[in-house]
Amino acid sequence: MLPKGEIPENAAVGDVLQVFIYQNSEKRAVATLKKPLAVAGELAYLKLTSQTEIGAFLDLGLDRGLFLPFREQAFPLETEQSYLVYVYIDKSGRLCGTTHIYKHLRADAPYQKNDQVHGTVYRVHPKLGIFVAVDDRYLGLIPPTEFFRQVKHGERLEARIIRVREDGKLDLSLRNLAHLQMSADAEKLLRVMQENNGVLPFNEKTAPAEIERRLHMSKAAFKRAVGGLLRAKKIIKLGDQLHLIAFDLE
């Protein structure tokens, strides 16, 4: 059935229409001229529009949302946030989505070490790392040693490939190559000092966990950035404190 409101003006018997067919709440086959954001067998980045007593619904670009059953929700969801889901047809013939997408991702990415890529977070594990769907298609993982800030499920990231494993899976890092990252880290330290009256509220004795929490970088990266700023004579060490030279001269 193509609802009356979707029938094109001047349509006549014998006209050929391209439609998408899905099952409505009454288990009837309904046709629509609207193009869905995804079809069965595809991965798609969709916005969560509502959460109900029977499950959640995602915007599929149709009048009817894509049903996301509770059992297919691998993590807590937030309304109006987007997530990467796999679209499938359940046993009753209904179009549904799932956030359990690992088995639907591929391990044949065309990338090499040090390539910059984009992806979507689909699982966060404190010990194993951050699971990322590179290009929303390929298997990627950011090990715990390669990230220093909190990320959310569904978050879009830009990362660097640090290793292509033998099985084709990608190891990723949120940090750039060492010499480029050191420059970025140094700029961050300078901004922090400018916001703190020319004094860095950390030093080389600060605990690694505190540096990671406040600056989103490792203790080693912090020390490299400090060393570079000292050599460039942009900062000076007075006792245990680090001072911004340009700030002192103003």
Write the layout of secondary structure elements.
Blueprint: E1 20-23, E2 29-32, E3 43-51, E4 56-58, E5 66-68, E6 82-89, E7 95-98, E8 116-125, E9 129-134, E10 138-142, E11 156-164, E12 170-173, H1 178-194, E13 199-200, H2 208-215, H3 219-231, E14 235-238, E15 241-244, H4 245-249
Parallel strand pairs: 10-12
Antiparallel strand pairs: 1-2, 3-4, 3-6, 4-5, 6-7, 8-9, 8-11, 9-10, 11-12, 13-15, 14-15
Helix pairs in contact: 1-3
The percentage of residues in β strands lies in: 25-35%
Percentage of helical residues?
10-25%
The SS-based structural class is alpha+beta
For the termini, the CA-CA separation is 76 Å
Largest sheet: 5 strands, antiparallel
Whole-number average pLDDT? 87
Task: Write the CATH architecture name of the largest domain.
Answer: Beta Barrel
Relevant CATH superfamily of the largest domain: Nucleic acid-binding proteins
Report low-confidence residues grouped into runs of 5 or more: none
Domain module tally: 3
CATH class call of the largest domain = Mainly Beta
Secondary structure tally, helices: 4
Number of strands: 15
Rg measurement, Å: 25 Å
Q: Estimate the global geometry from the Cα principal axes.
A: elongated
> How is the CATH topology of the largest domain named?
OB fold (Dihydrolipoamide Acetyltransferase, E2P)
Query: Strand order, biggest sheet?
Result: 5-4-3-6-7
H/E element sequence? EEEEEEEEEEEEHEHHEEH
